[in-house]
Amino acid sequence: MENTTVSTLEQYIASAKEEFHLISDERKEALEVISNFVKTKLAEDGIANLILICTHNSRRSHLSQVWTQVAAYHYGFSDVFAYSGGTEATALFPSAANALERAGLSVQKLSDEANPVYAIKYDENQPAIIGFSKKYDHSFNAQSGFGAVMTCGHADANCPFIPGATRISLPFEDPKAFDGTPEQEEKYDERCRQIARELLYAFSVI
What we know:
Strand content: 15-25%
Structural class: alpha/beta
Largest sheet: 4 strands, parallel
Shape: globular
Distance between the termini: 29 Å
Oligomer: single chain
């Protein structure tokens, strides 16, 4: 990854951290559930796994997975691992990948099938986050002892029980509502920024 990319991401993170005051007290309470889960798991097991879940594993769960991993790395938590999944598999929506690129991450498309695989890098010396759409219980993901972070209300309502998981509710509004409109990319950027800001906050208070 070029230094200019790293610099863009560092600037993005720094400015997102300056926006913690925009997070409501109610949202901070929800985010601190993640903080406490990670803190407890690291103390007990030396590792903390989080699966970020939304219905189609196409937008919010991917953005949340990436920013969870970035936030953990930024605050020095090397034994936190973020995954994503859905109640069904579709594909990572291109506008979500575009928003991550504009935030300063390196996003490389590795395949061209209907559900492509992406390598998403946040640091040149760290392994890429592998992004592709899958069900939350896919073998690629952690299978037990993980935090299941529900990033959409539909998935929260339709996953009444997730085996092996501690359930955490953190719904975000779906940028899909703006697909096909002139505001599409702007709205994906807004959601990306909110998710980055909130997950950076979660790791800042561990």
